[in-house]
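Task: sequence design from structure.
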């Protein structure tokens, strides 16, 4: 059960330059002791200690989320650090302004790391700034971990504002504490990627402006301007251009669908108060239909992207075991609804590979999602990793009805669903997954017998470690 959603007053503490906990309110002291610390000893809450070290290293006050966990619960906090003096040797003051505790059962559904994986799966990054637009946290869709190198730098030192907007317009919105919508930015240096930023102003407990929380969606469509006077309604004899869906219709559909899903889930969960049972059921059906439409929009956008001649993928250093656990975490609730057990490789096992982090996660979510969809309730889905002939492999095996030999190539074709209907699929997932695997230098294959389940195997180039 969740407790202490709102603190009546901040939980305070002090940490010295050596990381020793000088003083702490009872709530923080209990957590410190539960994490194995001792009174007057080094701060024993790992993420909180990391935040203190980072604040000292940068010489600036920080405000960011922190998590802790023990045998009984998971704790989410919002923590502010304040240096007592410009000298880094002075004490560091901690102020915890939000504190939520979850049982581990709740954590499986509400873990924010799952939310971050969902963002990365859908290609979104997250940026948090302070009131002066200095970055205090950033995690982009193609990065497995937070980027600490940019912390403390101005947002405008990392990104250029793309016309028709200009820095003055962006700063005017910041000065007026207004939401920032559809702001195109280009990353300076490196690949100079384009992003579309959506930002909401943040207000602290005292009612003061505390910065912005941004989502950053890659905008990698070719930036081609039509010639003056050209008819943009026709391209190679087509009524619309090849890139119209991904760059215009897709984003235009995602926003209202997202609102429909969010509002329907709020109604069905009765967060706003009691509701007739049949109304809650209707809302749940609306949310389910909305998610299906949103999945279809995402599939069509991916289909358009992978069929462009210039489509490329990143060559990230990834670990298939880590990605297996992330993908399973995203689908844990769906599997539990059908009493299906996900049998995963040991987290200590490693299977390093080369491939794009987000696209590999996307393939595994598709494979595990299909296995859940077509497996009987109460069955087991097994994920196993291996290496062979220079490739790292991960196999997803289910106990479903299997696939006849004559259908095993058809399932990788566009919109092919083997005559199934009403199961929530679009018929594009396996086609897209195989194309993505090929783009990363790998393959996606299936081995199956009718009535004996199926095994889908994703192979990617093996990454040799020292």
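Answer:
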């Amino acid at each position: 059960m969740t407790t202490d959603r709102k603190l009546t007053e901040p939980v305070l503490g002090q940490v010295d330059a050596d990381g020793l906990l000088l003083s702490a309110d009872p709530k923080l002291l209990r957590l410190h002791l539960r994490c194995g610390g001792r009174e007057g000893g080094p701060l024993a809450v790992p993420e909180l200690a990391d935040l203190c070290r980072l604040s000292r290293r940068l010489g600036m006050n920080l405000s960011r989320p922190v998590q802790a966990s023990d045998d009984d619960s998971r704790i989410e906090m919002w923590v502010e650090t304040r240096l007592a003096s410009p000298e880094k040797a002075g004490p560091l003051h901690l102020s915890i302004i939000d504190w939520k505790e979850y049982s581990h059962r709740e954590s499986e559904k509400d873990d924010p790391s799952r939310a971050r994986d969902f963002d990365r799966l859908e290609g979104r990054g997250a940026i948090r700034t302070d009131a002066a637009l200095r970055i205090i946290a950033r995690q982009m869709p193609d990065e497995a971990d937070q980027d600490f190198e940019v912390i403390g730098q101005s947002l405008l030192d990392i990104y250029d504002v793309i016309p028709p907007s200009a820095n003055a317009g962006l700063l005017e919105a910041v000065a007026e504490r207004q939401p920032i919508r559809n702001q195109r930015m280009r990353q300076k240096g490196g690949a100079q990627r384009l992003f579309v930023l959506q930002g909401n102003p943040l207000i602290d407990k005292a009612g003061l402006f505390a910065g912005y929380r941004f989502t950053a969606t890659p905008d990698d469509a070719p930036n081609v301007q039509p010639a003056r006077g050209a008819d943009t309604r026709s391209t190679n004899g087509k009524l619309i251009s090849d890139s119209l869906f991904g760059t215009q219709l897709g984003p235009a559909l995602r926003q209202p669908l997202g609102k429909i899903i969010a509002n329907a889930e709020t109604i069905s969960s009765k967060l706003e108060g009691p509701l007739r049972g049949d109304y809650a059921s209707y809302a749940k059906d609306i949310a389910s239909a909305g998610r299906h439409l949103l999945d279809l929009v995402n599939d069509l956008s991916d289909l358009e992207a992978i069929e462009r001649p210039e489509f490329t993928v990143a060559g990230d250093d990834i670990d298939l075991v880590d990605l297996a656990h992330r993908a399973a975490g995203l689908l844990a609730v769906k599997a539990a609804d059908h009493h299906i057990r996900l049998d995963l490789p040991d987290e200590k096992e490693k299977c390093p590979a080369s491939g794009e982090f987000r696209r590999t996660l996307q393939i595994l979510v598709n494979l595990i999602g299909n296995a859940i969809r077509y497996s009987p309730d109460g069955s087991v889905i097994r994920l196993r990793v291996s290496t062979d002939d220079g490739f790292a492999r991960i196999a997803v095996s289910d106990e479903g009805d299997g696939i006849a030999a004559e259908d095993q190539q058809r399932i990788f074709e566009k919109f092919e669903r083997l005559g199934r209907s009403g199961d929530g699929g679009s018929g594009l997932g396996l086609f897209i997954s195989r194309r993505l695997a090929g783009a990363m230098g790998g393959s996606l294959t299936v081995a199956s017998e009718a009535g004996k389940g199926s095994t889908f195997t994703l192979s990617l180039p093996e990454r040799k470690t020292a």
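The radius of gyration is 24 Å.
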